[in-house]
Amino acid sequence: MLAAAAAKTHAGAAVTAVVRQYWALTKPRIVALLVFCAVIGMFLAVPGLPPWRALLLGTLGIWLASASAAALNQLIDQRIDRVMARTAHRPLASGALQPRQVIVFALILGAASMLVLALWVNVLTAVLTFAGLIGYAVVYTAFLKRATPQNIVIGGIAGAVPPVLGWTAVTGQLHPYALLLCLIIFVWTPPHFWALAIFRRDDYARACVPMLPVVYGVEYTRWHVLFYTVLLVLVTLLPYLTGMSGVFYLGGAAVLGGGFLYYAIRLMNPPDERFAMKVFGYSIVYLMALFAFLLLDHWLVAPALQGGFVYRRIG
Ligand code: HEM
Ligand SMILES: CC(C)=CCC/C(C)=C/CC/C(C)=C/COP(=O)(O)OP(=O)(O)O
After folding, report:
1. Neighbouring residues of 117: CB distance < 8 A, sequence distance ≥ 6
2. Which of the four pLDDT bands, split at 50, 70 and 90, describes residue 1?
3. Could you tell me the distance, in angstroms and rounded to a whole number, from the CA of residue 221 to the centre of ligand 2?
4. Ligand 2 atom 13: residue of nearest CA
5. Which ligand is the nearest neighbour of the Cα of 166?
6. Whose CA is closest to atom 15 on ligand 1?
7. Which InterPro entries does the record match to this protein (predicted)?
8. ipTM exceeding cut-off 0.90 for this assembly
């Protein structure tokens, strides 16, 4: 009796451990921010609340595709992940999951995503999401990452696409404002990643991945972080300048942008080696907060100021 109970507990713990490995395979925290940006895209696409069907099923489909892309990335990057200290503990790199399990898992998630989006959201969103999945898992991971120090600039397009997916999930149409949100994430990606790459450059060098600090050195990468941060601050003015967002957003973007500029300038002459990771950490808080400001401005402040939703559309 006791032995049976112990065996049951043991089996339960083993199942939990396997579920945890599959969950880790989806890069849950990165995907959470991607999906957050997609959901904000949905809210910005219409006055008031988006239709619940597009909101729920669109979010599910985009999440499934991003999780599938993250699993495929780890399948293709097995060798690299095994060599780098930061990634050696990942399910596939550590041997906790086998490649066949990862392929099946990624294909199921990818297929489920396409079904949900094509059948219950719209075909445009399904096609663009598929392009994002292939862009990240195949174009970036299998080719660009190994080929050029500009890998993450070009590959960043895939990571920047979620707000567009959110927008099209709700409206079925591409809109210049959605592309503007995509541009913001695209320009944000280099300082986000290169800050981490500066700190982890030895990892990348050992794995023979031609990241910018490995190929051109830390000083050169710091200048690039600063350049893209200045560009980011300018690009984040566009939602206000094009009439997409109001002064509440502008204030938030200015304060957040000022913070990012402070970090990027300080990174030119950092107090210690770990400072690059502080810049990386700030980049994540920055993007989350910037998109929260976009939503608050659109949803709470603009209607209150205007006495209702008034959308000043381009053209
Ligand atoms: C090509 C584009 C990108 C590259 C190369 C990149 C690279 C990275 C790397 C190497 C990490 C560390 C991951 C780890 O240690 O497991 C990371 C973390 C993170 N990235 Fe990115 N990233 C990109 C785009 C994005 C995008 C578009 C988002 C969201 C909109 C994002 C959100 C995050 C978050 C939230 C983390 C922290 C994860 C954690 O704390 O576990 N990244 N990124
Ligand atoms: C459908 C859709 C929108 C897909 C989204 C694609 C996606 C999951 C983008 C995230 C970008 C990311 C985590 C890059 C890091 O990869 P890396 O291999 O350079 O980092 P690593 O060394 O930590 O694995």
Report:
1. 57, 58, 61, 62, 65, 125, 126, 129, 169
2. low
3. 20
4. 30
5. 2
6. 86
7. Protohaem_IX_farnesylTrfase, UbiA_prenyltransferase, UbiA_prenylTrfase_CS, UbiA_sf
8. yes
